[in-house]
Each structure stands twice: as C-alpha cells, then as structure tokens.
Amino acid sequence: MVRALDCGSSGCGFESHRSPHRYPVRPEKSACMSDPFMPMNLEDTIVAISTPSGEGGIGIVRLSGKDAIGIASMMFSPHRKGTPTEFRSHTMHYGHITDPRDGTVIDEVLLSVMKAPHSYTKEDVVEINCHGGMIPLRRVLELAVREGARIAGPGEFTFRAFMNGRIDLSQAEATIDLIRAKTDRARKLAMEQLSGALSEKIASARTTLVEICAHIEAYIDFPEEELDLHTREELSRSADTLAGRLRELSSTYEEARFFREGLSVAIVGRPNVGKSSLLNALVERERAIVTESPGTTRDVIEEYLNINGLPLRIMDTAGIRETHDLAESEGVRRSLRAIDGADLVLAVFDMSLPLKDEDFTVIDKIRTRKSIIVLNKADLPGSVDEGLIPEGLPIVRISARTGQGMDSLKREIEGLVFRSGSSSDGLMITNLRHKLALDGAAEAISRASRAIVEGLPYEITAFELRDALDRLGEIAGETTTEDILNRIFSRFCVGK
Questions:
Q1: Which residue, among 181, 163, 162, has the nearest Cα to 172 in the 3D structure?
Q2: Helix (H, G, I), strand (E, B) or coil at 89
Q3: Average pLDDT in the chain
Q4: Distance of alpha carbon 255 from alpha carbon 424, whole angstroms
Q5: What's phi and psi for 247, nearest 5 deg?
Q6: DSSP 3-state helix, strand, coil percentages of the chain (rounded to 5)?
Q7: What is the rounded end-to-end Cα distance, in angstroms, of the chain?
Q8: What is the domain extent for residue 407?
Q9: The Cα angle at residue 290 between residues 288 and 292, in degrees rounded to 5
Q10: How do beta strands 371-376 and 344-350 pair?
Q11: From the CB of residue 476, how many other CB atoms can be counted at a distance below 10 Å?
C-alpha cells in the first residue's frame, strides 16, 4: 500500500512507502550467475545455492516465490507423513530429496518452510539443508529449476525483501556490509544500520521537511497571504537546524568508512631503516624478508592487521633512493604510488644515524599526506636531528627489533584516525551514496532557508525543499533510479 504525505498541496506529496510498480520489471531478461543484477520478474520463483562453494558440513539451497513450497513438495520425501504444503510455517523436517521422475534419491536433507509474509523476502521461502559438497547441491539446484524455479540473480532475495517492503534500501546495503565486515566494530555498524537506525533518522528529517513544506505550499495556494517576519524566522531557523543535523551525520562518514573498508597504511623510507622489520613487528610474524643488504624489498608487500576493531591494510614498500637497477627502480616507483594512494603513511627513519638525502626525499613526499614519523632503532644511541622533521607531524620512537614503542605506535594510528572526529558511539554512515545524499539535502535546505529570509518567491523555496526530500528519499529507496539499484545489488553474491 502506498501512502502519501500531504503537505497541504498535491504538488508536495511524497511517498513514504514503496510501490513495486515504481521500478521497471524486465521478465525478458534471463538470469545467470555471471549477469549483473537487473530487476527481474517478481512473479517467478527463484532458487540459488546460498552457501559458499567448496566442501563443508552443510550447504543450503534456497527457494523463494509463490511456487516455492509446491516445487519443494515435488522434490521432498519426508521421513514422516505430510508434504511441505501441509507443514506449519517455520518448522524443519527430515527426509530426502528425490527425483520425481524415477525416484532416485539425491541427498538426505533437512527442509525448512517459512510462509509469507513471515520470511526474509516476505514470500514463501524454502531452505534445503544438504550435505556440503557441490555435487549434491548442484543436483538439488538443477532439480528445482527443472520443476519450475529460475536461478536467482545476484542479491535477488534481498531485492525482493526491499521491493516487498520488509527492508528499505539502506538496510539492504547494510546486509552486504554485514557479510563483508572485517572486524567486530564494522559488524556493529552494519547491524545498527540493518536494524533501521539510519532509516528512522532519515524519516524524522523528512517529517520536519514536510512540515516546513506544508507552510510554504499553503502560501502558494493562497497568494494573497504573506509570511510575517516571525514565521519567516521560525521556518528559517527550523530549516537551518535540520541542515546542521544532516551535516553532522554526514561528517561521520570518514571515520565509519575506515571501519567498513579498512585503513590503507603505507610504510615508506629509504633502504635499511627497518620498514620490513616494522611490518613484521606489527603483524607479529616474519612476513617480510629482513637483511642488511639495501634494496631487499623490491615490491609492495601487503598484510592485514586489526587494531581495536580498526582494520588496517599495511603495505611495506621498497626503499626510496636513486638506483640504476631496473627492478629496484620499479619498486621505488610503486613506493611513491603507494604514498599517493594511502590513507595514512608511516614514514620510517633510522634514529641512530643522521638524516640522509634520501630521508629528505621521503619528507618532501609526505608533507601533504596524513603521516606519522616513526623513528626506528630506539634501542641504539640516537643521532638523528629531530629539528629537521616538519612541525606538526606526530613522532613515535620504536625499536622494531625489540618491540619497544609498538603499543604507542598503534595508539597513535588509532588516535590519528579519530582525532578529527566524530564519536563512534553514535549513529554513523558508512556509505558514500548516503553521504552525498545528505550533503545535497543539507545544501538544498540551506538554500531554502536563505530564500525564506530574503523573501524570494515561495515557489523557489518549495523547489529547494522538494529537492531535499528527493535526496533523502534516495537513501531509503523512496526515490531511486534503476541504475542505482543495479549498482547496489550487483555487489551481492548469488543466493543472498
């Protein structure tokens, strides 16, 4: 059911619930595992293997659609009496999948039935728990297709949950974030969004916008009336407050992005300052080869680390120096490229020796980057002149050989990421699409506020408010193009 929010004029009505007919359905588009996602025929019953490829204890074949239970009834031979069409919802039953043509037993299974609307997709759903080898799973999948199901496209189960109103678009995106979470804090962020916290925030903002829009539309409908100064100031103040709330929420993106995607950290420096030793100390194992010969590392070596829930992708790079060796020159070029692409640079210097020309080359490269100066070999007498290091950059003294200062370095990395920042205790947005929509809505609201104060025609204010409503609607999927849906759901695996 579609419900419109009435702003006092038909020109400002915005849907607060999705209609399945808002998006084009393309029944002629065939589905296969390699196709990019496209909205498909929602009347089809779909099937997919929902567990990863390979051997395992169990594997799950999932069906969803109006014929899911009927197809399962043709395939399933229960140990006890009854058929899936007779089973109560949310019950599990032991039996065998058999080929109805010749009675061949394909697998011994547990079959669960979830009847609409109380299922993930709000359709009839059947899940068949098979033995976890690919052969029985494929045989069950092929049998379901032969009996009338269609192989699901990437993310099509979640797309149906979205289209049928069980979740909104931001919750659908949180589903894939939850699957791909690299740390427990990333999981918590995804779960918060999946629970609807962001949706509630956006719905509250849209309600405030609709109230402001209702006042403006009323004056458009009755042009003989004029907004008095007090009302103008009140509406402008409400708009500015709302724009500030949206900008505050948008500002959490950078911090949350690190939890969702991980922090890219490049370890750079001239040869033999201890970059590879630092990598080994951070990951607490011998990941990189360490020798006294300069130029040992000739390519970027990557490793992953978790610091208090913050996922790090650490890159050990070749030593930066002038060289005529072709392989080492390529390594130096990749080191410089790693600096440009990193979220954070750990610039390593040997504090037991005076700075060399190659050290100053490194300093020049990191001046405009978010960096930490790492003075290695703190277990040796110091000779480095710290006054030559640019002011404002944090300095940490360590010994990669003994482990001295490693905890301080990890705290500095974490502190530098969140120093600017927003508190990770509240609601945070992890998706660039959401940030752009929030920024666009805040700008439109600010323009509407200025139009109110300056006494511009009410139609201009109403236009800006509608623009803001549309941008906020994009987050939940109230106003979303097919292209955006394609990009979002193509990231899903088949079976989810």
A1: 162
A2: coil
A3: 80
A4: 8
A5: -65, -40
A6: 45, 15, 40
A7: 26
A8: 259-418
A9: 155
A10: parallel
A11: 25
Residue 432 carries which side chain, given as an amino acid letter? L
Band (320; pLDDT cuts 50, 70, 90): low
**347 pLDDT more than 90:** no
| Look-up of token digits 């002038």 | 322
Report yes or no on 121 lying in a domain: yes
Q: pLDDT value at position 110?
A: 96
Q: Which of 124, 152, 180 is the last residue of a domain?
A: 152
What Cα–Cα distance (Å) separates residue 162 from each residue in 132, 167, 202, 358, 417? Answer: 29, 5, 17, 56, 34
* CA 261, 415, 264, 291 torsion-angle sign: negative
DSSP summary character for residue 12: G
Does 172 score more than 80 pLDDT? yes
3-state secondary structure of 345: strand
The DSSP result for 184-240, as a single string, is HHHHHHHHHHHTTHHHHHHHHHHHHHHHHHHHHHHHHH-TT----HHHHHHHHHHHH
| 242 domain-assigned | yes
**Token reading at 22:** 């808002």
**The last residue of a domain, from among 101, 121, 152:** 152
374's tokens: 């790492």
Q: Which two tokens stand for residue 135?
A: 């052969």
What pairing do the DSSP bridges indicate for beta strands 301-307 and 310-316? antiparallel
161 by Cβ neighbours in 10 Å (0-12 / 13-18 / 19+) ranks as buried
Query: By three-state DSSP, how is residue 315 classified?
Result: strand
pTM score > 0.85 for this model? Answer: no
Q: Six-digit token pair at 323?
A: 């060289």
CATH, residue 246: 1.20.120.430
